[in-house]
Recover the amino acids of this structure.
């Protein structure tokens, strides 16, 4: 069976940056399973898996526009330090959950700390990066009615 919309695809992957640094991998874990055509993985990778089958191995390069987007400078903002009440020590690199403008929960990363403000970045950590995937497709099957109804793999 070939990868197509409404199929469940299970694959192993290694993700590296432009300079060859490993960013993520499914090594030693179960393969990643997703429902094809339902936005469960980044668009550029999903498009490259279309038409492939179990047993296929491929290398895929995904540009930022088809991954996590470009870095949006508007998502880097200074926040009054008082917004971090109850946090004794704030350091660059720390992650916090914040409420977005539409009420959604989003992760922010501390980029700078001063006496009055904490600069946070709400961009995805991989925004602006070209991503390189080494993929091994393990299984392709028809999705169940329940999986299609729910829009994800069970």
């Amino acid at each position: 069976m070939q990868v197509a919309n409404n199929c469940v695809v299970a694959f192993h992957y290694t993700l590296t940056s432009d300079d060859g640094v490993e960013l993520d991998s499914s090594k030693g874990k179960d393969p990643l399973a997703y429902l094809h055509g339902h936005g469960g993985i980044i668009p550029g990778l999903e498009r490259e898996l279309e038409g492939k089958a179990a047993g296929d191995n491929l290398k895929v390069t995904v540009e930022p526009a088809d991954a996590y987007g470009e870095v949006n400078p508007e998502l880097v903002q200074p926040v009054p330090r008082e917004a971090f009440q109850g946090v004794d020590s704030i350091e660059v690199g720390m992650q916090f959950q914040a409420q977005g403008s539409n009420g959604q929960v989003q992760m922010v990363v501390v980029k700078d700390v001063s006496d009055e403000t904490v600069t946070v970045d709400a961009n995805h950590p991989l925004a602006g990066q070209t991503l390189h995937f080494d993929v091994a497709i393990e299984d392709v099957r028809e999705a169940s009615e329940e999986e299609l109804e729910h829009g994800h793999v069970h």
Residues 97 and 107 are 5 Å apart (CA to CA). The domain at 7-68+126-150 is CATH 3.10.50.40 (Chitinase A; domain 3). The chain has two domains: 7-68+126-150, 73-121. The mean pLDDT is 94.
